[in-house]
Here is the input.
Amino acid sequence: MSEFTPLRSVLYMPSSNAKALEKAKTLPIDAVIFDLEDAVAPDAKPAARDTAAAAVASGEYGRRTLTIRVNGIGTEWHDADLAAAAAAGPDAVVVPKVNSAAEVQQLVAALEKAGAPEHTKLWAMIETPVAILDALAIARASERLSCFVMGTNDLVKELYAEHVPGRAPVLPSLHTALLAARAAGIAILDGVYNDVKNTEGFLAECQQGREMGFDGKTLIHPGQVEGANAAFAPSEQAVEDARGLIQAFEDGQGSGVVTYNGRMVENLHVESARRTLSIDEAIRALQG
Ligand SMILES: CC(C)(COP(=O)(O)OP(=O)(O)OC[C@H]1O[C@@H](n2cnc3c(N)ncnc32)[C@H](O)[C@@H]1OP(=O)(O)O)[C@@H](O)C(=O)NCCC(=O)NCCSC(=O)C[C@H](O)C(=O)O
Ligand SMILES: [Mg+2]
Here is the structure.
């Protein structure tokens, strides 16, 4: 049994959208974010809060990781959202616009005070300039914090930047958050791709995110699930190469360096290959 939890495809859905809530039960997503923030109109927020909590408790989403995105600190909905989410006990509570280590500690204290079970982690959205500049302190602020979620729409807005193919304006921010997440040993998810009908652009962004090192991508539409699942899983070729590389190293009988398919292999490559195999194993376990 692998300890690795795949987060290739993490789908936001407005908790006020009954059709989307039903649809998500049928999709091969690794995780769901029941949204109470941007995708829910102010009038609909109290009902959406109840719906999200009921969805988590329903047991109808199978093996998927379930999370609730609450409204941000300082908004009129935040306290009630956090209390309801803590009581529902999802796998994680996602908090937008987390800006400091102190905020993480405040959120963790609030979750504990509201009686959140131990398995309910905190996922912090990194989507402001100050969060990028303080990313390492945020990532290390609490053991309960297990994942960064990039909010590239807010980031582009705050930077007065533009959404462009290749994402040059936000790459320094994405890399900084990745460095912080890896230094702290937490997961990190790439931001959403807004143009839901542009499959080619979406797949290019998935590949870019995978190559940069993200664990998976946040999604906004069912049509994006398959592409994300493929992009963030090791390919058959990668799995075969990982097995071959490990075997070649073991056949080297204690030599510190061997070659496999003409390439140098050292222990660090073996560690990467083992990671590839454990991700593959965890994904296969999901498929049952
Ligand atoms: C973008 C959408 C508004 C498009 O909706 P729609 O026009 O209804 O799409 P379709 O008709 O193509 O839908 C086909 C079926 O799929 C279901 N559906 C659609 N979206 C979802 C979803 N997200 N989850 C589950 N199911 C979904 C439809 O109900 C149709 O079902 P059926 O008829 O039974 O076949 C819409 O996709 C949408 O609302 N997406 C989510 C938007 C959202 O959550 N936004 C907030 C998060 S993004 C963000 O804030 C990131 C961050 O903070 C940042 O700063 O970047
Ligand atoms: Mg945002």
User: Anything to note?
Assistant: The first strand starts at residue 9 and ends at 14. The first helix runs from residue 18 to 24. The mean pLDDT is 96.
